[in-house]
Design a protein that fits this description.
By secondary structure, the chain is mostly helical. The chain is 83% helix and 0% strand.
């Protein structure tokens, strides 16, 4: 029974963390009148696609966390795994807060490089302990790269913000 519990513990913790960050981000994401009034590029995906895309991204990130945790050989490495994912989750929530709650896409754009770097640093850090963990984060890095360009375009089309 102890083997089964130790197998599922990181899975359940990673899933709970991903659900928490995703749910909090979704709560902060208000696509009401203010958002609908923003000018957006013609190539922006439809709004309904963002929820499923983020669900896949967070599921892959949770899988990455499990592989990284299991690949970690020391307590210090496990602390880095937790710390990198905690930092990334925090930065993800900050972006949603800035863009949607504060209605400042320009500030959100300023925050994007930190979010992007938090993913890249995790990919590089996990490479030594679990290449699978690193690969699971690549779609997240690509999505945030695309989202950064979309954020930049929204700023260009709608600035200045008050």
């Amino acid at each position: 029974m102890a083997v089964a519990r130790s197998f599922w513990k990181p899975v359940l913790i990673a899933a709970a963390a991903a659900i928490f960050v995703g749910a909090l981000g979704a709560t902060l994401t208000d696509t009401g009148a203010w958002y609908r009034a923003l000018l957006k590029p013609w190539w922006q995906p439809p709004d309904w696609l963002f929820g499923p895309a983020w669900t896949v991204i967070f599921a892959l990130a949770a899988m990455s966390a499990v592989y990284a945790w299991r690949g970690a050989q020391t307590t210090s490495q496990r602390e880095w795994v937790v710390g990198l994912f905690a930092l990334n989750g925090f930065l993800n929530i900050v972006w949603s807060t800035l863009f949607f709650a504060a209605r400042r896409p320009d500030w959100a754009l300023d925050e994007v490089p930190m979010l992007w770097l938090s993913i890249l640093i995790a990919i590089l850090a996990f490479w030594r302990i679990s290449r699978t963990a690193s690969f699971y984060l690549l779609p997240y890095l690509l999505w945030v790269s695309f989202a950064a360009y979309l954020n930049w375009t929204v700023v260009q089309l709608n600035a200045p913000f008050d």
